[in-house]
Amino acid sequence: MRKYFIILFISFCTFIGKAQQHYSSYERSLILYNDSKNKIDFIGKIIYDMQFHVTDDDTSAVKNERMELLYNDSVSVFQNIRKGIKDSVLNELFERKQKLRVLPELGLYQENLGLTSILVLKNNMDILVQDNYTNYLENTDKLFFYKEKIALNWVLSDDTIHVLNYVCQKATLDYGGRKWEAWFAPQIPISDGPYKFSGLPGLILKMYDTEKSWQFECIGIEKSNRAVILMSGNDQKKKTVSKKEYFKIRNDYLSNQIYYDEKNLDYILIDNPPLKNKQDRFYRERNKRLNHIEKNIL
Amino acid sequence: MHIAVFGQTTISGKLVDDQNKPISNVSVSYKKAGGTVLLGYGRSDKNGQYSLSVKVDAVDSIQLDFQHMNYAKKSIVVANRSASYSYQLKQQVHQIEEIKGLNIPISKRKDTINYDVNSFTNKQDRVIADIIKKLPGIEMQGDKILYQGRPIQKYMVNKLDLMEGRYGIINNNLPADAVLKVQIIENDQPIKILDSLVFSDRASINLELKRFTSTGTGKVGTGAGPFLWDVNLTPMTFGKSFQMLNSLQGNNTGNDVAKDLRAYYTGGNFLNNNPEIGDGPNYITLRSVSTPGFAQNKWLDNQIFLASTNVLQKLKDGLEIKGNGSYYNDLRKVSGITATEIFTSDQTILTKEAIDNRYRYKVLDAGILIEKNVNEVYLRNSLQFHNRRNAEMGNLLFNDCEQIVQNKKYEDRAIVNGFSMARFIGKQLVNVTSTIKWRQTPQQLLVIPGQMVDILNQGKPFDQMMQDIRYQGLETINGLSFMRKINYFTFSPSLQINYENRKLETGINIKEQSREQQMGEGYQNDLMTGQVQFSLGSRISWMKSKWKLSLMTPFSFYMYNVSQQQVQALSREKRYTFNPSLNAEYKLNEYNSLSANGSTGKTIGGLNNFYNAYIIDSYRSIQRYHARLLENTSSRAGLNYHYKNIIKANFGHMGYAYFEGRRDYIFRNTIDSLGQSTSGIEDRESRNSNHSVFGGIGRFFLPIKTVLKINVTANTSKSDYLLNDELAKQESRGIGGSLELINNLSSVLYGEYKGTFGHQQNDLAGGHRNRVNYNNHFLNITVYPHERHSFMFYNSLYINNVSSQRKQYFLDAMYRYRLEKWKTDIELYATNILNNNQYLQQSFNSYQLVQSYFELRPRQFIISTRFKF
What we know:
The structure holds two protein chains of two kinds.
Chain A: H1 2-33, E1 39-41, E2 44-53, E3 62-71, E4 75-80, H2 81-95, E5 119-123, E6 126-132, E7 143-149, E8 155-163, E9 166-175, E10 178-185, E11 203-209, E12 214-223, E13 227-229, H3 233-239, E14 240-241, H4 243-255, H5 257-263, H6 273-289
Parallel strand pairs in A: 7-14
Antiparallel strand pairs in A: 1-13, 2-3, 2-12, 3-4, 4-5, 5-6, 6-7, 8-9, 9-10, 10-11, 11-12
Chain B: E1 9-16, E2 27-32, E3 40-43, E4 49-54, E5 61-68, E6 71-79, E7 83-84, E8 87-88, E9 106-109, E10 112-116, H1 117-120, H2 128-132, E11 138-141, E12 144-147, E13 150-151, E14 154-157, H3 168-171, E15 179-185, E16 204-209, E17 213-224, E18 228-238, E19 242-251, E20 301-314, E21 319-343, E22 348-373, E23 377-398, E24 402-425, E25 428-440, E26 443-448, H4 453-456, E27 464-486, E28 489-512, E29 515-518, E30 525-544, E31 547-552, E32 555-564, E33 567-578, E34 581-587, E35 592-605, E36 615-618, E37 621-623, E38 630-645, E39 650-663, E40 666-671, E41 677-682, E42 686-701, E43 706-723, E44 726-743, E45 749-763, E46 769-783, E47 789-800, E48 807-819, E49 824-831, E50 838-844, E51 848-855, E52 860-868
Parallel strand pairs in B: 1-7, 1-8, 14-16, 37-41, 40-43
Antiparallel strand pairs in B: 1-4, 2-3, 2-5, 5-6, 9-10, 10-15, 11-12, 12-13, 15-16, 17-18, 17-52, 18-19, 19-20, 20-21, 21-22, 21-51, 22-23, 23-24, 24-25, 24-26, 25-27, 26-27, 27-28, 28-29, 28-30, 30-31, 30-32, 31-34, 32-33, 34-35, 35-38, 36-37, 38-39, 39-42, 40-41, 42-43, 43-44, 44-45, 45-46, 46-47, ...
């Protein structure tokens, strides 16, 4: 009896150890995030419905995600609306100096956090992308930044449509291995849009690639005095890689996900080599087919 | 060398603010003066400098627009010529109009479509059915819910199915404000063990409540014209692992609450072994008048009392135990007149029957169900008991001269047990099912005075005739099936052994001048039938990305034993059937999908008609059959197209169905000049066929909060019939449809319109042609002059092509007063305000045209209070 008890106790301890490791990673990420020097205040937000095919080959598997574009007169941030909600909750807790709690206790279950954790910060032509490609909670280990300077060669055309009661003009673009069609509203003096797309003389209200495997449609325009806090300058520098490098790291992770996850204790598989192999094959196979918004990076 | 074709001009300049500081990031665009589309654009740099290369020919002047979020917009028209223009921009924060289109009331996640209940709720909606019927993509036929034109497969509350298909009682009594969202789960496979094995194309509905709660509705009302009462108390509890619903209802206002006990599904899918207990065979009918095809509460003369109790307990290991019991006692009165024209090849027979019937139904049902539905194992056992006692009495006046009394007694007792278990053995899923059904159905018909004198009393009139029938049946169905998935294929071979045994004893008793006489040979049946069925079948399905195919090939071997009057009529008679069917589905893209199906094969029937001595089945018709097995061969094919765009809330479907049947027999009807009929079976091949096309769309217009639903069906059919020894063909063609508009926009006015139309034409032998046309319009308008007061007007207009009564208009109205503090409504309801007392309709079948006048409920007033627990 006693013997069993000890075994039970040991396994309980390892369980706690595991849990704490995550816990401290939250804490770390929050402390990094709560440096007021890197706080950006916004005046409004544009809400987009983003619809995309999960894989290249199966156009029937469609996902929808709601994204927000927060803007002020010089900078904008494009991110998952649920990420925004989660960050506000955590910031609020931090500001009140309340004890940090695990996300599910706040009602922020993994499944409510959405599929996309990308954050695109646009400052004129300078783009800073922060992405955590695992989507696994807020694991800073897999959080990276890359910078990009882009000049998008928009071509205006004469076509117009109405979106949300605004007259929108069509503009086309080649970017990321896709041909894009965008509809922008000259009436709205925000030269911005979803993802990295910007620079048109008006806000992009609707945009999609010609295969319709990525589609954005504006569904709301609201005032908002939200703030976004980015990782502080020094820490950010450590995490910043080149764009190519970032995609390499991501690709490496997605292809060998099972090993990385195990290493980070995110996901433990019972010692079952066949099952592990199967899962590994599944990840590799899936990664080959995943529908990335930018096609021609690697 | 590049040669410029267009004249190229460069316009540049500098932009500064009121303190002459440069402004960067000002968007500068140009277009033709007076034009709408921008032709080019640029942006000011950090020194406020901008430069535009203007490439536009044959234009004298262009318009420059300067825009920045923090400055007032500036537009100027300048000459199309290289120049420099510098401006000072005025500071002004640009107000962007907010658009809160955010709450799209329908969203989709994986296979689940969520309807946000609040966005579809209107002030007058009380129970969840009021919401569900409005949702785009959903259709309600009475209490039955259809999604994309097909009945739903499961109705759950918090993912638990308490009522097993009898969802009407929840739907009509669950307060709408207890529900957070209505979810449609597409491609739902309710059996977990099958999840990765068998693809389901059916949809289930789930109501997600705001919290675990006890709730329910109640209603108490009384009224006059004559004395009326209406009571409904339906409390329900939805907990984490326990659900319960009790209901006590009673009324004489024409609301047939027994329909709440009807099951709209029995989980009759794969593995689910939940046989429907149903009703026993009915050999006799009381002559009645066909009921109007519209709102029952306008015509049903009833007195019903109903009690129902249902519980569900989910245990820790995933085992669910459900129990239900219900009883109702219903008294109905029906009166009206039926005029029938029967077209035989040489004459038209006219009959008229004035009908005054009373029906008393006492029905008791009870059941207990044990289910374990987890990933590793599936187990289900249901035991059901059913007892029905009907006593029916009718006074009939035939052709305005003969008074006939009909008296029917009918009892039905049945016990059904269904068992099913499935689990994996290795990679193979093994499923065992077993069902046992036992039933006893005695029935009796008494008619005074005696009819069909030629057959029953050598042409002499007599005082009364009585048909006695005793029926007993026992049936067992036992199956074993396997299922295995290999790559994209799922193979499932199966084996079934069924046995059925029926016993039918009948006798006719006639009374002449108070002398009773049991009629002898030719009027007595002592029939025993036995049937063994041995089936081998396989189902192969193939599924890959956009394609789903499945092929079923059931082969059956039958053996029959029949003895009639102790004489062996069939001894180990053998038959085979093979009924293959094929289904294919192709998903074009996220919005569009196509499917096709086809089947062909043979069924063996006739055991029900094996009696060769007479049975009186109504006061004016008598039957006996030349006993033999009957063969039906049929082929079916269908094509379906579905469209759905969740984000825009557009739904559509259309399809085509074809049926062709061939029988090696035909029913022979002989009708005499009084309209009394004799039927039998003749060995003569007959055919029937049917083509139909159908379609529907549903659309939600968000800006005007309006739901539009349109459904259309057209069909044409041909069939053979044999009347008075004349073989003939009837051809019929019809088209029907409906249009529905539900508007929710205004907060003081709410409108709902439904229009249905139909045209049916029937061509018979001898050049007879019948046409039935109808178009019905229903308009419900609700006005809320004040938060607490509301007025509802229900208009219905029925238009048909019967010359004597073309249009019938009904008006009902209701006033409702809301006591917010008590969460109670007080309602004053007036029905049939115009006091229409008769309704006329017509219908036809293969050789007769029937016009019926039905006595309606008179004008009446009810005051009631409706509350929420």
